[in-house]
TrEMBL record:
<protein>
    <submittedName>
        <fullName>Pyridine nucleotide-disulfide oxidoreductase</fullName>
    </submittedName>
</protein>
<keyword id="KW-0274">FAD</keyword>
<feature type="domain" description="FAD/NAD(P)-binding">
    <location>
        <begin position="5"/>
        <end position="296"/>
    </location>
</feature>
<dbReference type="InterPro" id="IPR023753">
    <property type="entry name" value="FAD/NAD-binding_dom"/>
</dbReference>
<keyword id="KW-0285">Flavoprotein</keyword>
<dbReference type="InterPro" id="IPR050260">
    <property type="entry name" value="FAD-bd_OxRdtase"/>
</dbReference>
<dbReference type="InterPro" id="IPR036188">
    <property type="entry name" value="FAD/NAD-bd_sf"/>
</dbReference>
<comment type="similarity">
    <text>Belongs to the FAD-dependent oxidoreductase family.</text>
</comment>
<dbReference type="Pfam" id="PF07992">
    <property type="entry name" value="Pyr_redox_2"/>
</dbReference>
Length: 407
């Protein structure tokens, strides 16, 4: 065995970074190592579409520099993937054959972009910095770009690619952002995006392509598209391979308890690879957002230091800006909620939809336009507060009063 560490972290994104900060804040006596297959210091995946579209410099993506890890006294094992966990012997094997020991292990290895069976030179994904670098090189030469999947990768990419390009979005379902916002909000956004030049192909898919100087796409509907780039944004697959091989309990993600501990007492998981309790529904889920990764990593790090901490559950918390529209979705945002209140001002484009339980406590909210109040709705959900605007709605049926109540 090459080296022994008190704590080892696999993954250098939101969860890994928060774990490092928490460990450093509470203890300077533990030896810590962080392992990641990439050679870069931590960076923001959320900003990569801005970089690809030329809206920000590559250097602005980085959250920290290499000196950050040195200041924390952390051993950085970058550029080498973790390939095997021996849970019983507390050992981790790296891609170069080296083996390191750990007292406690945090798996924060994230997820990978889903691929499609068709392959060609112009097909891309956008998950890692290398993907963004490739797209940034290809995009300036493109006249037309196409994306598959209408989520938080495809739509930001098309938005920031620029209005001078012909932009196509191919969606398998009957609406966009189906995993982010409710159906009513989705319809409002679709109208806005199409008005901004997006060409939308719903309930369709790419079934074949021919590669030449440009890609010739054949869609299931019979349509044919000519494009220079095809971005695959059909969601992600959690990196659970290490955990499965190690014998940890895995469903869609690595199963964790309310202490962010896996089925092994010395191994924890956080972020896009971890499957734990949803705060609102209590169901087991992978939330897949930055805030959840940070919260889970904080709890995991404290418990690895033998400082008992409990995680109350993850919650949807997505905020983005695409096609000039601010969007936020917080908590439970499905129309099967016991009660739903919504208001839409077509003049300003501002939309608010609040989801309530049987006691009028806030379960979640969808917001379009001026989403600075998203944090307030997050607080309402986490504190299980009664919707404060209800008193204004009672007995007053004017549209203006409803907007005031939802402000």
């Amino acid at each position: 065995m090459d080296q022994q560490f008190d704590i080892v972290i696999i993954g250098n994104s939101a969860a890994g970074m928060q774990a490092l900060r928490t460990l450093h804040r509470h203890s300077r006596n533990h030896s810590v190592a962080i392992v990641d297959r990439e050679t870069h210091p931590a960076y923001s995946r959320v900003l990569t579409p801005y970089y690809v579209g030329g809206k920000t410099e590559r250097s602005n993506l980085f959250i920290v520099d290499h000196a950050f890890y040195h200041r924390l006294g952390v051993a950085t094992l970058f550029g080498q993937p973790a390939v095997e966990i021996d849970a019983d012997r507390h050992r981790l094997t790296l891609g170069n054959g080296k083996t390191i020991g750990f007292g406690a292990l945090l798996i924060a290895s994230g997820a990978e972009a889903r691929s499609i069976e068709i392959s060609a030179a112009g097909i891309c994904t956008l998950r890692h910095l290398d993907d963004a670098d490739r797209l940034a090189q290809l995009l300036p030469e493109a006249r037309s770009v196409t994306a598959i999947g209408a989520g938080l990768v495809s739509i930001p990419f098309l938005s920031h690619a620029g209005p001078e390009l012909e932009r196509h979005l191919v969606v398998g379902s009957n609406r966009i952002f189906s995993r982010v916002v409710d159906a009513e909000a989705s319809a409002i956004l679709e109208e806005r995006f199409v008005a901004d030049g997006l060409q939308l192909h719903k309930q369709d898919d790419v079934v074949d392509l021919a590669g030449g100087e440009r890609l010739e796409l054949a869609l299931a509907s019979g349509k044919r598209l000519t494009t220079d780039m095809l971005l695959v944004g059909k969601g992600v697959v959690p990196n659970t391979g290490l955990a499965r091989q190690a014998g940890l309990a895995v469903r869609d993600g690595i199963l964790i308890d309310d202490h962010c501990r896996t089925s092994h007492p010395d191994i924890y998981a956080a972020g896009d690879v971890a499957e734990g309790r949803d705060f609102v529904t209590g169901e087991s889920t992978i939330q897949g957002n930055w805030l959840t990764a940070v919260e889970q990593a904080e709890v995991a790090a404290l418990n690895m230091l033998q400082l008992p901490a409990t995680y109350p559950g993850s919650m949807k918390n997505n905020t983005t800006e695409v096609f000039g529209v601010d969007i936020a979705a917080v908590g439970y945002c499905r129309d099967d909620a016991p009660r739903v209140i919504s208001a839409h001002d077509r003049f300003t484009g501002r939309f608010r939809k609040v989801f309530l339980d049987e006691q009028d406590r806030v379960l979640g909210a969808t917001l379009i336009g001026e989403t600075n109040d998203a944090g307030g709705y997050y607080q309402l959900v986490t504190t299980r507060a009664v919707f404060p605007g209800e008193r204004l709605l009672r007995g007053v049926n004017s549209y203006a009063a409803r907007l005031l109540a939802l402000a």
